[in-house]
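Take the subject:
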Amino acid sequence: MNEESEKRMGPAAADHEEAPGERPAPADGESTPQGPPAPDDDSSGTGDAGGDTKPEGTAGAKRPWRRRRRTYIAAVLLLLFLPVLTAETALRVNYAGTPEPGTRTRHKDALWLGHAWVDGRKTQADVTALARRLKDTGIRDLYVHAGPLEHDGTLPKSAYSRARWLISAVHAAAPRVRVQAWLGDKLASEGPDGLHLERAATRTAVVASTRQILATGFEGAHFDLEPLHSGDRDYLSLLDDLRALTHAHHALLSVAAHQIDPLPAFHSFWGATTGHPKWWSQAYFGQVARRVDQIAVMSYDTTQPLESLYGGYVAQQTSLALEVTPDTTDLLMGLPFYHENRFGHWARAETVPAAVRGVRLGLSRTDADRARFGVALYVDFAATEADWRAYQEDWVG
């Protein structure tokens, strides 16, 4: 698997969801062609007493219905777009204000690393450069792509053949940094292909694969399984089993999480109209957060077209997540360290400065003093110097 493909099966924004497939976008500029407009006046109406009258069924007789139809269409469009306009306006307002001075890194940040770090493509020189990059940042955890899992839940050791070397090299070059195994797979939640969480044998195999990865020396297991629908009880059962395992090994259990409903029950509406719910309910997010040591929100791929709207969306997501994440769990908000233009993600809008400002605003308004909080940078192989500089200046300070 190449690194570009990791993004769609890795933390994706949930459409990658899929960061553990994409929705086709309509062609820009396409619209339904319109015919010539009906005349606004009747130049052939009734004349003098001896004049002709229009026969029934002509264009003149149909004109009132055409006007009513246009009025009806306009009303329907207004009903459809008014809630969207209202919501977008609220996001813009949410982006206003000044973050609290103390809303900076708590040194609990994380970075997603691509598969090249464990398959032999990276060298000691790369580790040295990485350690230099991480110095004086708030990054505590590395999520290193060590999968993907097979659809039956197993994990071939060939997928992470250089893991022991990497862990040892990172510990020597950056002793305070922890190395976790990032494991993911496509779920069979919207089609026949993928990992079936509803099968007990599959969940058992995932636990066995985690035991196998911890024995390699990883200090935690980070899961990104997508698309994961809100309310999935099999996922919660898997997390219970995984946490028992990781705690017995004094290791961490972390997950990449879908975004939270921006409007009440929005995932249900979106699922009914598109077949892809995308969001989680806030209550379900809390259920997941209570079962893990770290939860990283994939707060990108939001469809927002402007920086101000994206930043306001991130501020909202930060507040929603803070409200239901227990103080014993690290909450991390994802930062978009990648640059793509497609349906769901616009690079001009989803920027690191906008995301950091949104994170700080949400933190300021909801729980400014929360200690177990950070940001997660997605992803190393797509990041630019501008991304790193914005993270350093706007978040680390």
Remarks:
- The chain is about 40% helix and 15% strand.
- Residues 106 and 371 are 6 Å apart (CA to CA).
- The two ends are 36 Å apart (CA to CA).
